[in-house]
Specification:
It is a single chain. This protein has 47 residues and is mostly helical. The protein contains one helix and no strands. The N and C termini lie far apart (70 Å).
């Protein structure tokens, strides 16, 4: 019983870790794309 509970906790911790990692990567990609977009557009504006 205790071993099953430990496995379940390990799985939950792993899921939480993966979720936070995915959020971080997604956010960094979003920021990177936003920066690229802004830089491209500012180059168009500035002659």
């Amino acid at each position: 019983m205790d071993r099953d509970l430990g496995c379940l906790l390990d799985i939950l911790v792993s899921i939480r870790f993966v979720e936070s990692y995915v959020e971080k990567v997604t956010w960094e990609m979003f920021l990177h794309n936003t920066q690229c977009y802004v830089l491209r557009n500012s180059r168009d504006i500035v002659p």
